[in-house]
Amino acid sequence: MHQECKYLIIGSGIAGYYCLKELLTLDPNAHIIMVSSDSEPPYDRPPLSKDYLSGMVSREEAFFNEREYKVPNLELMLGREIISVDPKRKLAFLIHEGTWAPDIARWDWESPSSAIFDRIHFEKALIATGVRPRMLGVKGEDMAGIHYLRSIRDADAIRRDAASSKSPLVVGAGFIGVEAASSLIRLGLKPIIIERNAYIWATLVDRAVSGIIQRQLEKRGMSFILNDGVRYFSGRNRVEGAVTSSGREIAADFVLIAAGVLPNVEVASNSGIAFERGIPVDRHLRTEYDDIYAAGDIADIDNPASGEREHIEHWNKAQYTGRLAARNMYGMNQPYGFLSTIWSDILDLHIESAGNTSRYDRYIMRGDPDSASFAVIYIRGGAVSGYLAINRDNNELNALNGLISSRADISGKDGLIANESHNLNELMDKR
Q1: What range does the domain containing 98 cover?
Q2: What pTM, to 2 d.p., does this model score?
Q3: Do 127 and 267 fall within a single domain?
């Protein structure tokens, strides 16, 4: 099979989906092909660990509205996988359905046996293959009752299995692990969360702020084992427990592993496209090849504002970069200008964070950290560099975003920042 299209989108996650929607607006008559290894049509990802997992959102509600993207000029190829791309000839290769993939690294694309591949000729292509869960690599992790969460089918299996659990264990206290634990609590369970780091969310906050967050989560039914990992899982045909690195035995009849992710860089690797943590792109989201773009969790972005490469695995960035990639594939040549933001809903805690929370001179607490509403505001070089906020007003968050983006000088104004009655927008007005 040989097909042609103007735009090829590899991946149907958040970045791929919003790229598709933007292209349908900008170039509504263009022939677009979206190829996804997922067998389901595009769906939203955040509910998988939260409202969908806890049963608050139905399966139908998790999917994007097909009326918004199903048009005659779109071909949606589900359960298929792009194996490689020839950047110079602008060809993408897919294995015939039901055929095993060969050793791509040694494959001769010009050989007669290359007929096992379907081919798509494109003008512009987006790689939005996202990430996959990191496997623990320990004995017993393939037993029944042990789960990873990546797809809606994974969430279905987790929800079915958790329904009969008496002793659930979550491995990993990052956002996905904590969100999933909150869903288990909504289902009436009491999960234990084991985290190999000395404190939770270590890549986002320091030990003191982490401790504040942990106490809020513990008040809501979560139990943590920190500075320990899983050595192996025990059980016969089904998991019955875990033995930790320190030798502790934990009873567990259900396990969800959320121990980080790995970027799906195989398309780049098989295609001779440079990759590191992800795929390096310039400020227009182009790879080293002008007509091939990358977006979402897979993209390492050259951010002119910070002068550094950004690698952010979150919904906001995926949505933004998917749209931006579409505009630039269309020819608009718009530069990346996104303020790094993340968010999460964990039971009754709405968490927002933006900017850089790891490199700072000091931070200011706005609100009572013992309450369920406060903000930690990070200062670097006389300006607000980032924040982490729990249950804060949108006006305050917008003001903080403005302070970060404008680099407003807030020297000597720590008291005003800490004062909840003071309007933070006034700090920008008085630069």
Answers
A1: 2-131+263-330
A2: 0.90
A3: yes
